[in-house]
């Protein structure tokens, strides 16, 4: 025990060591162990924040890709409907234009035949009046 005396360790240090050991056993049994169990339980129940964040991130990527595919499909359907509507509208336009052109051609043809008939009638009338006018001019020139 001389060595302890030379180091300055006496019975007070032994008593303090015993108190420390008792305090450590008490704290371990009533403070540290329940805290460790509560921490483990909390981690078990919450599954860890990082794991949950990774899971939500994976779900969001999956939902985003699903959304994009549905939007792409919907856009294709809309494009198909619009193309079909444009095609139908163009067909109706062409049919209407063709019908209008036919009616216009018929009207032009009818009006040409009427004009031709009117010109022929006017020409006949002029021919029939030509002799009378020639006689009138001749009589005036001759003074009769």
Describe this structure in words.
- With 144 residues, the chain is mainly alpha-helical.
- The protein is built from three helices and no strands.
- It has two domains: 1-46; 51-119.
- The chain has helices at residues 2-7, 11-46, 49-142.
- The radius of gyration is 58 Å and the shape is rod-shaped.
- The N and C termini lie far apart (185 Å).
Average predicted confidence as pLDDT: 90
**N-end to C-end Cα span:** 185 Å
Given as residue ranges, the uncertain stretches (5+ residues, pLDDT < 50) are: none
User: Radius of gyration, rounded?
Assistant: 58 Å
Strand content: under 5%
The biggest beta sheet reads: none
Strand segment tally? 0
How many discrete domains? 2
DSSP helix fraction: over 70%
What structural class is derived from the secondary structure elements? mainly alpha
* Morphology call: rod-shaped
Order of helices and strands: HHH
Count of alpha/pi helices: 3
At a glance:
The protein has 144 residues and is an all-alpha fold. The protein has three helices and no strands.
